[in-house]
Amino acid sequence: MHSQEPHTLPVTTLTGIGSQVAARLQKLGIITLQDLLFHLPLRYQDRSKITAIAQLQTGISALVCGIVEFTDTIQRGRPSIICRINDNSGLLSLRFFHFSAQQAKQLKPGTLLACFGEIRYGYTGLEMVHPEYKIVQNAKQIIETTLSPVYPLTEGVGQTLLRKIIKQALSLCLTVDNTLSDLIPNEVLNRHHFPSLKESLLTLHNPPTNLSIESLQDGQLPALKRLAFEEFLTHHLALLQGKLAYKQWQAPKLALDVNIKQDFINRLPFQLTTAQQRVIAEIESDCSQTHPMLRLVHGDVGSGKTVVAAIAALAAVSSGFQVAIMAPTELLAEQHLHNFRQWFAVNSIDIQFLTGQLKGKNRQSTLQALAEGSIQIIIGTHALFQDSVTFHNLGLIIIDEQHRFGVNQRLALREKGQQGDLRPHQLIMTATPIPRTLAMLQYSDLDMSKIDQLPPGRKPVTTSVIPSERRDEVIKRIENWVSQQRQAYWVCTLIEESELLQCEAAEKTATYLSHTLPNVKIGLVHGRMKANEKERVMQAFKQHECDLLVATTVIEVGVDVPNAGLMIIENPERLGLSQLHQLRGRVGRGNQESYCLLLYQSPLSFAGKQRLGIMKETNDGFIIAEKDLELRGPGEVMGTRQTGQIQFKIADLNRDSDLLDLIPAAAQAIYQQQAQVIPELVQRWLGSANKVNEGIAQS
Ligand code: ADP
Ligand code: MG
To answer: How remote is the CA of residue 434 from the centroid of ligand 1, in Å?
Structure first.
């Protein structure tokens, strides 16, 4: 019977694990025996030989055996005991800060002591702090034949216990009764010279004697690579499955009347680009199906994604369904509100705003109107998807600047707005190019559209890299620029996530600049201001009631003031390239010349020079993303790009990035040969708490 297979049994099946230990193990994500098997060592210890004290090296753990010369209790400062041992090649001090009186007594002169720990250099020469130790009769007694695994621990679960129970689990699941099946087709394993699952797990938990500690720890062992490969593959398959599952739901048919659409387009102050028209057609075609759309629109900053979203929203509203638009910042949400109200003024559509700042009565009445259906378009931040928000008939969800949200956050939204069998269509927009390999782990559940064209007449932004010693020159330049009736941004950034410090820096800069530039009207916007205050400043800037906007990175996304064609970014060397590109995307929105000045703190590191050089060379978001990936590595890029980054048990995006290219072919092989194993793979790697998995479970 399936449920009796040993690897699916709870850890309490093992001897010595009661409910208390089981609860602690759960903190490590360990519930079943299978979870234990995939709890891999962080590193290994070599207790296969005794090292002579004279041969010890600092920073390395070693097994040492010697005779106690003396043990002394030290009361000064933090109480400790120090115990000196001698093995005829040299002297070593052992130091203990937590100890019992009995312990101190045990370590009496003449005792033969074996100890294991990391060597460091202390006051008294070579030292081990808190070594594991044992009083022995004979040195050989403590030598182990294999390298010992060191597992990640949690409070109340020590190394010895983990070693013991993992050993038990291995013997139950792999040796006695090998039910832990290899879910990857043999052909795929052979193609990449990967060992079987059983061999991989045994190698990593019980390394064979011929493997050196270095080869086990350098991350290149086939046994490890194979598991990382299986994990990546599973994440990819889970997204594909999630898509299939979601697409099985019913969705409202959203049809856009030709006249309504044409009327809207005619009223725009510009002509849609061919790329915009193509993407709109793709969206219209998806939304006219009875299954939900899951589409990602990727278009570089300034490519005109908002108007595409507006047409999709028009399709939903004119078919009688509600639309929810989620933006990552209040400022961007306010901008959208403003644009949509303007665009849809003649359509008499009720458009409202919902963010975390909306409180009390106003919030109540907005929530009620949403639930009753009198609000047709709601624009807001992630507050839109809190439990207290219910919709009357949500037909379309639009997520702007998706890269600011995590994968799991995005997947959680799928649950929102479901009514019986009906699920809303989803339109997801991003300006951040996703290199193909990463797209596989992040967006395999989405169909992709690309706005690969900027509106005509846009001139590339000219970027200069300037040391902060030339600040005065830059300030002069603003004066000059403003006298030509143009506007500018001054962006204050700080690396620390401290919003407070960033806002303070912006306030100081604004004060300083208003002293130095008395003829320039200066506005200030930062994250600590109230939403309506921010919006008032933004509108004033848009109306050209002020010339220079001093801002924090709150203006990174969405802000759109075409007459502002000069941007100064302070401390650009501290920002990621993609973030700089987004920020710079605030200028170059009209058809006039525009400039970006990167005002760095000297001296600039070599890497910093390289990175800013790229910004100077190109305006192409895709090239910038590729370079960013090259310079920082995929782990870093994915980590900072999203808040809820993907968690891997074993795989490491940087160490294992060479595996990513192998995934699509393997996924195809699984689909063709043994698609039935996918749920089991997902269970193994993602566990049942996963959103992706919930999607599958529901189908
Ligand atoms: P993003 O893709 O970065 O979200 P926006 O939707 O904010 O870009 O559009 C950037 C600017 O370009 C806005 O001022 C918008 O009105 C304008 N715009 C959009 N489409 C076109 C077009 N086809 N021709 C000219 N300007 C356009
Ligand atoms: Mg936008």
So the answer is: 21
